[in-house]
Amino acid sequence: MEREARISGLLDGFSSTPLDVLPDKDKRDICESILDRQLESDEEAWADRKDMIWNLVGCILISLLTLVPILLPTFLMDDFMLSLRVASILSSIVLFFVGFFMAPHLGSNRWITGFTMLGMSLIISIVATFTGG
Amino acid sequence: MKRVIGSLVSLTGPGTALQELLYGFIMALIFVYAARFGLLTFNSVQEYALVQIGMIATWGTIDGIIFYYIAMCD
Asked: Which pTM was predicted?
C-alpha cells in the first residue's frame, strides 16, 4: 500500500478521537511518526489473532455455562412447571453470586454488584418476555 | 472447579465474561418465564432443552464472531 494511502487510513482511524482537536499538520506528523516506527512481526500478529480466537471460544463456552442452572432442574424433576420455577430461582442465586465475586475485578461493591446483576436480569427478562423478547 | 472457571474467564477477560453471563441468563430466563406464564408451550423436556441450547449457542457464537472482527478491525 502506498505511504499516502496508509496515512489517509490512519487519519480516518483517528477521526472522532481526541486527536481531532489538533491541527491537520500535527495529525499528519503523528501518522508519519507511527509509520516510521517498527511494526509488530508476523509472529506477534499471529499470537494476537490466536488470542482473539480463544476469546471467541471463551464467549461460546461462557454462554453455554449459563444453561447449567436453567436445564439441570428440568432434567432432574418430573414436574415441568415446578422445575421452571426452581430454574429461575437458581439462576437468580447464581447471578447474585456472579456479581458478588466479580465485583473486585470491576472495582465495585460486592453487595451492590450482586443485587444489580440479580435485579437487572430479572427486570429485563420479565419485560422482554411480555414485549416479545 | 475454581481453576476451570478462572481459565475460562481469562480467555475473554472479566468484563466480557460478565457480559456473556448476563446476556446468557437473560436470554435463557426469557424462555423460562415465557413457559411459566403460558406464552410458550413445549411438547417435551427435550424440545425445551433444544430451544435453550440452540438459542444460547447461536448468541454466544454471534457475540464471539463480532468481538473477533472488532478486534481484527482495531
From this structure: 0.73
